[in-house]
Amino acid sequence: MKTNVDLPSVKIILIFLLSFFLQSALFSQPDYKFTSRIHESGPNLQVGAMYLYQNVKTGVDARVTIMNLTGGITVNDIDGSGGFIDALQPIINVPAYSNGYVEMKIDFYQSGTLNPSVQTELPITPIDVDGQMYTGMPLYEYDEIYVETGYTMFQLTGGQLNMTMNNKWVRGKNNAAIDYPGIDTTQRSVMFTTVNGGVSTLTVRVGAENTSSTNTSRLRSLYFKKFIYSNHGILSYNSLLNFSGIATNNKVDLKFVLEYPLKVKQVIIEKAGIDQKFQTIQEIITTTSKSSYETQDVSAAGTSFYRLKLIHEDGKMIYSNVLRFETKNTNGTRLKVFPSLVHDKVTIQLQNNTAETATLQIFDYNGKSVHTQKIKTQIGMQNVTVDGLDQLARGNYVVITRVGSELLQQKIIKL
Fold first, then answer.
1. Which parts of 251-349 fold into alpha helices (H)?
2. What whole-number distance in Å separates Cα of residue 347 and Cα of residue 339?
């Protein structure tokens, strides 16, 4: 339907729209601009290739180096066209039935020199982390940022990314396989922002898990600006290095180690029974000079669950992994793995009557070993956390533990 509007009204609307778009364009300008590049060294588009970007910010140059290629991923262009010219936009080739990434290191220098330039605040936002269906099967894109000292923001409600943090790597992986044509910063459900502080180097990975029979190319985009998310969630530094325990004779000895004791002011130990209703059983005020803590629960008969709530100096709060113990008398060796539906990590519960070294392995259904580690067992029931499993392809796996002459196994499913 066509509507007639008087000329002054049209002028007002045009002026308003022009003002709006100018403000939006100004607001969305990146803090760092990766436009033209110079191939400085290494085989082009291969591991070791280095590219110079001059004046990404006033007085700052950047060099981008391809550090690793995994899962059959190759690079078609280190910085493709389309999307945002100021973003760093690698085009990756993703083979059928593959899961891999290209890892890039970005070093910042004082312009025209090889002197590192420490950035007070370095934001980076992977945008358009989407997916697509090929021949009825999904491809999921993902990005990983190494977080040395910072934090990550993302769309918590309505987001289409699984956000995880493992050994300082923040990962945002698409879970909907919905393709969003073009690249823009309005689709907050398929983007996340990580901010590092006081660094001169940033390491990033852009990748995809392709479960289809189609070989395809994907344009990725890394935009160097901080964005605001409605109903946002925050992933901060992983201040807990380890949480473990041993159960014997209706007692549970718990131990935890802090990676950043300076950042944690209090640790609350919570316990639950079979109903999974956690309650505080102990509060520990931490000190900056101590990273390792031990405590004991002497009333741990039956099935008990334990977790830590870490209160940080800046007010942030995170929870640890959950430990499960059964302190009733048992004979022989037992193995339990939980959860059986796995995203990124599992807890191995081992009941043993001797102290020795056990071998833990995870096999896929083709008999290929995808994970191996040694465990120093103790008398009683102990919990061991195995993380980094988000790198595995979805499917069925078997966890096998060899303790002496005994072979124990349990099936898990990687989601």
1. none
2. 7
What is the CB neighbour count within 10 angstroms for residue 257? 14
- Least confident segment among 78-82, 158-162, 245-249: 245-249
Quote the CA–CA distance of 231 and 55 in Å, as a whole number: 35
- Banded pLDDT at 112 (limits 50, 70, 90): very high
Please tell me whether residue 96 adopts helix, strand or coil conformation: coil
Q: Max alpha carbon distance in the chain (Å)?
A: 90
pLDDT beyond 70 at 22: no
Report CA 276 to chain centroid distance, whole Å: 26
Do the beta carbons of residue 125 and residue 191 sit within 8 Å?
A: yes
As a whole number, the mean pLDDT across the chain is 83
Whether the link from the prior residue into 339 is cis, omega within 30° of 0, is: yes
Q: Report yes or no: 30 and 82 within 8 Å, Cβ to Cβ.
A: no
> Which of 194, 223, 201 shows the shortest CA–CA distance to 63?
201
Q: Which residues pair with 174 in a beta bridge?
A: 161
DSSP H or E segment with residue 9: helix 7-27
The residue assigned the tokens 């364009």 is 25
Task: Pull the structure tokens for residue 273.
Answer: 């029974």
- The amino acid present at 106, given as its one-letter code, is I
360 to 370, 374, 408: CA distances (angstroms): 11, 6, 10
* CA–CA gap between residue 265 and residue 181 (Å, rounded): 46
Q: Could you give the CA distance from residue 299 to residue 304 in angstroms, rounded to a whole number? A: 10
* Alpha carbon of residue 249 to chain centroid: 38
- Taking the C-alpha atoms of residue 30 and residue 57, their distance in angstroms, rounded to an integer, is 10
CA distances to 101, 193, 222, 225 from 204, rounded to whole Å, are 10, 12, 9, 15
Q: Would you state the pLDDT for residue 404?
A: 65
Work out the pLDDT band at 234, boundaries 50, 70, 90: low
Rounded CA Rg of the chain: 25
CA-closest candidate to residue 266, choices 217, 316, 222, 303: 316
Of 357, 352, 396, 389, give the one whose Cα is nearest residue 376: 357
The vertex-149 CA angle with 146 and 153, nearest 5°, equals 70
Q: Which range has highest mean pLDDT (78-87, 105-114, 262-271, 275-284)?
A: 105-114
